[in-house]
Specification:
Radius of gyration of chain B: 23 Å
Strand content of chain B: 35-45%
Largest sheet of chain B: 7 strands, antiparallel
Shape of chain B: globular
CATH architecture of the largest domain in chain A: Beta Barrel
Largest sheet of chain A: 22 strands, antiparallel, barrel
Shape of chain A: globular
Oligomer: heterodimer
Structural class of chain A: mainly beta
Number of domains of chain B: 1
Number of helices of chain A: 6
Largest interface: A-B, 52 and 47 residues
Structural class of chain B: mainly beta
Chain lengths: ~700, ~220
C-alpha cells in the first residue's frame, strides 16, 4: 500500500467511524392529560449547549454527537422536570409524559413585578388560579372562580342588585382588576362589571393581595387581580361549548384560533342567559333575569422572539330585566395595540395604547327607545423598559398617560367631565445570590382634576433556602378621587341628594406583610400575616348644611389578619387544599361606615384525577365557609352616634363536580350546594341560592378530532 | 395574512384614536322632544272617536301635585297640594279621576277590577258592568315628601283614595330599589253620573325610562 493510499484509508475509516458514532433520538412529549406539549426543552445535561424543543405536535428530534451515556433533562413551565439516563449507544424513539406541577412553583407570573418571574422566585406573594382549575369549575365569570378558590372573597349585592366585592376588608374600588395588565372602564356602585370578565379565553388569574400602587397607581389599595388571556399555540384550534344549569341558566360559546408563520389569532364568542329567580325566603325575593354577549379578538405577530405586536378588540353587551316596562343595558367596546421589542439579550421595551368604553342605557320596552345615560371612555398610553444587569438584576422604568371621560346621569343635566393623569415609575429587582432577592420601587402619579401629586414606594425582601422561602414587604397604595366622587349631583329617588366633593383627598394605604412558605415533594404550606393602615377612605356621609349625602374622607381604619394555606398532591391522583383567612377590621366609632367583613373564611378542595390513555376523569369537592359577622350599624342615616348590633349568619356551601374528558370531548357535571343550604332571610350578603342545583357542561375541542398522536 | 393583520391593526388605531369621547354613539336613541306642532306632551295623546277610546299620558313624577282627568271634555288639570291647608285643597269643577304618583282617587265614583288584561278582550267578551261589586273611595294618606324616608319621617297628607284602582301598580318597597309590578287588569270606573269607563294602566315610565309617567288606555263611555 502506498503512502497516499494509506492516508486515504485512514480518512475513510475515520469518517465512517464518526458517522457510526453520531446517533438520533426522537419522540413525543405529552402532558399527563395526553395532550402534546409545544415548546418543551430537551437538553443534554453534560453538553449544555446541545438540545432542542418540541413542535406543536409535541414532536422532537435530537442529534447526539457520539455514543456515550448522557443525562437528558426534559423541562416545561408548569410541569415537573424529568430526567432520563440515555444509555451508551441508545437511539430511536423515546416518548415522555410530563406531570403537571401542582405546586405551580415553576409557573411564570408577572403581576407582582411587571416582569416575568417564576412563581418560586417572585418576591411579592402571588396566588395563581390556573386554566385547568378554571375549566374544572366550568365557571362563567370571575366571581365564581374567585369565591371558590380564595378565602376572604365575598361578592354580595348592594343597591339595585349590583354585585359588590369584599376582598379581606377591601371593596371593589380598592382592588384593581386588570385584563392583561390593562384596567377596565366603567363602574356601578364602586365595582367594575364583573360579568365582562368571562372565563372563556383565560389562561390564568394572578392575585396579589395588599397595596401595589408603586407599579399600578390608583386603585391598587388592597390588591390586584390580573386576568391573563390565552394565546393560540396550535397551528389551528376550534372549540364549541355549552353549559346548562338549573333556573334556566344557559351559556353557549365557541372559539377559533390559529398560529401560522408568527401570526397568532384567537377569537372567542359567548352568549349567556338566565331567567329571573324567585327566592322563597324573606328579604330579597327576586333576582332579575338577564342575557349577555361577549366577543373577544386577539391577534399578534411575532418575529423571531425579537419583535411582537398584539392587537385586541372586544365587544360586550348585557341586558338586565330589571323591570317589566324597561330593561337596563350595558355595553363595552374595547381595543388595544401593544408592541414589544427585545433590543438585545439584556434590554426590552414595550409601548401600548388601550381604548375602553363602558356605556349604560335604559331600554323602554313600549317606546323601544334605547337612551344612554352613562359613558366612561378611557384612552391609555403605556411604555416600559427593562434592562438586565449581569443576567440577574432587572431595572424597570416606565410611564403611562390616561384620558378619562365620564358622562353620567349622576351629574347635573347628564353632563360630562374629563381628567388627564400621568405617571412615571422605576423598580429595581436585585438578586445578589440565589438565596436573596430585594425589590424596590417608586412611582409618581399626577391627576389633573385636583392637581394631585402622589408618590408610592415599595420594598420587598425574599430569602429562600432549600424548601423554605420567607418574604417580607412594605407597599403603599392610593386611590385618586374619581370624577363621580368629585362632581356628583344626584337626586336619589326624591329621598335625598348625593353631592360630590372636589376637595377630597386620595385614599391611601400602607401594607406590611410577612409570609413563609415550605414546599417539599407533595406538600406545600404557606402562612402570611398582614397589616394595612388605610386613611382617607372615601365614602358618603350626611351633611347637615347641604341636607344631603356628600362624599367625604374617613378617619384611619386598620385591617389586619392571617392567611394560611396547606396543600398536598400525591402521584396517584389525589389532592387536597385548605385555605383560611382571619380578618380583623377596626374603624373608629362615629365614622359613617362600620366594620362588616366576616372575620373567618375558609375554602377547601379535595380532588381525585385519573388518566388512562385518551381518557381522563376528575372528581372534585369544593367547599367554602364564611363565618357570621356582627356589625354595629348606625340607627340613623343623618347621625353617627347611635348604633345597634346586627348579625348576619354564616354559611357553608359545598359543590361536587365530575369531569370526564375523552380525546376531543369533555363533559362537566356539577351539583351545586350539595347539602341544600337555604337562607331563612335573604340579606344582601346572603348566598342567592334556592338550595341544591345542577349544571352540565359540554366542550368540544374540534382540532383534536383531526390530530392523531 | 400579514396584510390582513396590518389592515386590522390600522383600522383599530383609526377608530379609537379619533374618538376621544367614545365611539358608536349613534347606536343609541336621542331623548324625545315634545311635539311642537301640537304643543301637547301630556293629556289625551290619542283619541279614537269611532271606538270611544284613546290614551292618556300623565306626568305624575311630582309628589306635590294631583293631576285631574276629565273624560267627557278630554282634558287634564294639575293642582298643587297645599300641605299647610289640606282641607282647602282646590279641585277643578269637573273631573272623573285623579292621580298623585301612583295613587288614584275618583270624583264620587266607584271602581271594580275585571279579569280582562286588555281593552280588546273586554270589548270582545261583551261584558257589561252591572253596578254591583264596586268600591267607593275611602280616606287615606298620600306621600308629599320622601326626603325623611331614611329616618322614618315620610311626610304624608290625608286624602281620599280609591284602593281598588290604586292597585294598578304594586310597589314592593321591602327591597331597594322597589320592585314595580303592573296588575295588567282592566278596571271599570263608575262615574258620579252612573256612566261607565274602562281603564287599563299600561306603563309607569316615560320614554327615557324615568318613573312617575303614567300611560292609561280607556274606553269612555263604555
Amino acid at each position: 500500500m502506498s503512502k497516499k493510499s494509506l492516508i486515504s484509508f485512514i480518512l475513510i475509516f475515520l469518517t465512517c467511524y464518526s458517522i457510526q458514532a453520531q446517533r438520533y433520538i426522537d419522540g413525543f412529549v405529552y402532558s399527563d392529560k395526553q395532550e402534546p406539549l409545544f415548546g418543551v426543552a430537551i437538553i443534554i445535561k453534560e453538553l449544555k449547549s446541545l438540545g432542542t424543543t418540541t413542535d406543536e405536535k409535541g414532536y422532537y428530534k435530537l442529534r447526539i454527537p457520539d455514543n456515550k451515556a448522557y443525562t437528558l433533562n426534559v423541562s416545561y413551565y408548569g410541569f415537573e422536570k424529568q430526567t432520563y439516563s440515555l444509555k451508551e449507544g441508545e437511539k430511536g424513539k423515546i416518548d415522555f409524559t410530563l406531570k403537571e406541577d401542582v405546586t405551580k412553583l415553576d409557573m411564570v407570573v408577572i403581576t407582582g413585578t411587571r416582569t416575568p418571574k417564576l412563581l418560586k422566585d417572585a418576591p411579592i406573594v402571588t396566588r395563581v388560579i390556573t386554566q385547568e382549575e378554571i375549566e374544572q369549575q366550568d365557571a362563567t365569570d370571575i366571581r365564581e372562580v374567585l369565591q371558590t378558590e380564595l378565602p376572604g372573597v365575598e361578592f354580595s349585592y348592594v343597591m339595585n342588585q349590583t354585585p359588590s366585592l369584599n376582598l379581606a376588608g377591601f371593596g371593589g374600588n380598592a382592588v384593581l382588576f386588570l385584563v392583561d395588565g390593562e384596567r377596565l372602564a366603567g363602574e356601578t356602585m364602586d365595582n367594575v362589571d364583573y360579568s365582562r370578565l368571562t372565563m372563556d379565553n383565560v389562561g390564568r388569574i394572578e392575585i396579589v393581595k395588599g397595596a401595589a400602587s408603586s407599579l399600578y397607581g390608583s386603585n391598587a389599595v388592597g390588591g390586584v387581580i390580573n386576568i391573563i388571556s390565552k394565546e393560540s399555540k396550535d397551528k389551528w384550534n376550534a372549540n364549541l361549548n355549552a353549559h346548562i344549569a338549573s333556573h334556566k341558566e344557559y351559556r353557549y360559546g365557541g372559539s377559533v384560533g390559529f398560529n401560522l408563520k408568527g401570526v397568532s389569532n384567537l377569537t372567542n364568542i359567548q352568549y349567556t342567559s338566565s331567567a329571573p329567580i324567585e327566592l322563597r325566603g324573606d328579604g330579597l325575593n327576586l333576582i332579575y333575569g338577564s342575557h349577555s354577549w361577549n366577543v373577544k379578538e386577539k391577534l399578534s405577530y411575532s418575529y423571531n422572539d425579537i419583535f411582537k405586536i398584539t392587537a385586541k378588540a372586544g365587544y360586550f353587551f348585557r341586558e338586565r330585566e330589571s323591570a317589566e316596562v324597561a330593561h337596563e343595558r350595558y355595553r363595552d367596546f374595547s381595543g388595544g395595540l401593544k408592541g414589544e421589542y427585545n433590543i438585545s439579550d439584556n434590554d426590552d421595551i414595550m409601548l401600548s395604547y388601550t381604548f375602553d368604553q363602558y356605556d349604560k342605557s335604559d331600554y323602554a320596552l313600549q317606546s323601544k327607545l334605547d337612551i344612554r345615560d352613562y359613558s366612561n371612555v378611557q384612552h391609555i398610553l403605556r411604555t416600559m423598559y427593562n434592562h438586565t444587569f449581569r443576567k440577574k438584576h432587572i431595572l424597570t422604568i416606565g410611564g403611562d398617560y390616561m384620558r378619562d371621560y365620564l358622562m353620567t346621569y349622576q351629574f347635573v343635566d347628564n353632563g360630562a367631565y374629563i381628567q388627564h393623569s400621568a405617571d412615571a415609575f422605576a423598580q429595581f429587582d436585585w438578586n445578589p445570590s440565589t438565596h436573596w432577592n430585594l425589590i424596590a420601587g417608586l412611582r409618581y402619579d399626577f391627576f389633573s382634576a385636583t392637581k394631585l401629586h402622589y408618590v408610592s414606594p415599595k420594598l420587598g425582601l425574599m430569602y429562600k433556602i432549600k424548601d423554605w422561602s420567607i418574604r417580607a414587604s412594605y407597599s403603599a397604595g392610593f386611590r385618586a378621587p374619581s370624577l363621580k366622587e368629585m362632581y356628583m349631583s344626584f337626586d336619589m329617588a326624591s329621598i335625598f341628594m348625593i353631592y360630590g366633593n372636589a376637595n377630597l383627598k386620595p385614599e391611601k394605604s400602607h401594607n406590611f406583610s410577612i409570609a413563609g412558605e415550605y414546599t417539599h415533594k407533595y406538600y406545600n404550606v404557606t402562612a402570611m400575616g398582614f397589616y394595612n393602615l388605610v386613611d382617607n377612605r372615601i365614602t358618603t356621609a350626611w351633611n347637615a348644611a347641604l341636607k344631603g349625602m356628600e362624599y367625604v374622607n374617613m378617619a384611619p381604619l386598620q385591617i389586619a389578619g392571617v392567611d394560611l394555606s396547606a396543600s398536598a398532591a400525591w402521584d396517584f391522583g389525589l389532592s387536597i387544599r385548605v385555605s383560611y383567612i382571619y380578618t380583623y377590621e377596626y374603624i373608629q366609632k362615629g365614622q359613617p361606615l362600620t366594620a362588616s367583613t366576616r372575620p373567618h373564611t375558609a375554602t377547601a378542595r379535595i380532588a381525585y384525577t385519573k388518566s388512562c390513555k385518551d381518557h381522563r376523569f376528575n372528581m372534585a369537592l369544593n367547599g367554602r365557609f364564611l363565618s357570621k359577622v356582627t356589625s354595629d350599624e348606625y340607627t340613623s342615616l343623618t347621625d353617627y352616634t347611635q348604633t345597634e348590633k346586627v348579625t348576619y349568619p354564616g354559611y357553608t356551601i359545598w359543590n361536587l363536580s365530575f369531569q370526564y374528558a375523552w380525546n376531543a370531548i369533555s363533559v362537566n357535571t356539577t351539583i351545586n350546594n350539595l347539602f341544600n343550604y337555604v337562607p331563612k332571610y335573604y340579606y344582601s350578603n346572603s348566598p342567592f341560592t334556592t338550595g341544591t342545583t345542577f349544571s352540565v357542561g359540554l366542550s368540544l375541542n374540534i382540532e383534536k378530532f383531526f390530530k392523531q398522536k | 395574512m400579514k396584510k390582513i393583520s396590518s389592515i386590522f391593526i390600522l383600522s383599530l388605531l383609526l377608530v379609537f384614536c379619533c374618538s376621544c369621547n367614545g365611539i358608536l354613539g349613534s347606536i343609541y336613541d336621542n331623548k324625545p322632544i315634545a311635539d311642537e306642532s301640537t304643543g301637547q306632551q301630556y293629556g289625551f295623546i290619542e283619541i279614537d272617536k269611532a271606538n270611544n277610546s284613546g290614551t292618556i299620558y300623565i306626568n305624575a313624577s311630582d309628589y306635590m301635585q294631583w293631576t285631574y282627568v276629565n273624560l267627557h271634555n278630554k282634558t287634564i288639570d294639575i293642582k298643587v297640594i297645599d300641605t299647610a291647608n289640606v282641607d282647602a285643597q282646590t279641585e277643578p269643577q269637573d273631573w272623573d279621576f285623579a292621580l298623585h304618583r301612583y295613587d288614584v282617587k275618583t270624583n264620587k265614583g266607584a271602581v271594580q277590577a275585571t279579569q280582562f288584561a286588555t281593552l280588546d278582550e273586554l270589548r270582545n267578551s261583551g261584558t257589561r258592568p252591572d253596578g254591583s261589586g264596586f268600591s267607593v273611595d275611602t280616606l287615606g294618606n298620600v306621600t308629599v315628601d320622601m326626603s325623611g324616608m331614611m329616618d322614618g319621617n315620610i311626610k304624608l297628607v290625608p286624602s281620599s283614595i280609591n284602593r281598588i284602582l290604586s292597585q294598578w301598580l304594586d310597589v314592593n318597597t321591602s327591597v331597594m330599589p322597589p320592585i314595580y309590578t303592573l296588575s295588567k287588569r282592566v278596571y271599570f270606573l263608575q262615574l258620579a253620573n252612573k256612566e261607565y269607563a274602562a281603564l287599563l294602566f299600561t306603563n309607569y315610565i316615560n320614554e327615557e325610562s324615568e318613573k312617575g309617567y303614567i300611560t292609561i288606555k280607556y274606553i269612555y263611555p263604555y
